[in-house]
Specification:
It is built from five helices and five strands. By secondary structure, it is of the alpha/beta class. The longest helix is centred in the first third of the chain and has 13 residues.
């Protein structure tokens, strides 16, 4: 029986970041969908739920905290990894209190990100511990 690759959603308003994360995830055999805004991502959930979300905090119109709060209300079990260029203690505390699986500062080291994805999704995988 073959495992279905994880589907990771990348939500970041910066196109170069989205593209870099998409290439990185695909190089590891993961399926990736990217979104330029929180609203675009939330709308996509009507069609398909990812296994994990990589979420930027600082985006125009709807920031990452707003997206995270919506996910907690409707999809509490969906793992969220916050990736931000602004590593403020108050933001870290708020994100973790809101249920984030990890809080990582940009630029993120590949192994750190893959470790966070693995930890966040291990219980969601069939037979995961």
């Amino acid at each position: 029986m073959t495992k279905t690759p994880l589907l990771v959603a990348v939500v970041d308003d910066e196109e170069p970041i989205r593209k870099a994360l998409m290439r990185l995830m695909r190089s590891a055999g993961l399926n990736v969908e990217t979104f330029a805004s929180g609203a675009e991502f939330l709308k996509s959930l009507d069609m398909r739920l990812p296994d994990c979300v990589i979420l930027d905090l600082h985006m125009p119109h709807m920031n990452g905290f707003n997206v995270q709060a919506h996910l907690v209300q409707k999809y509490a079990a969906l793992p969220v990894i916050i990736v931000t260029g602004h590593d403020l203690p108050s933001a870290r505390e708020r994100a973790m209190a809101g249920g984030a699986s990890a809080f990582l500062r940009k630029p993120v080291h590949d192994r750190t990100l893959f470790g966070a994805i693995s930890a966040a999704t291990s219980s969601a995988q069939p037979g995961g511990q």
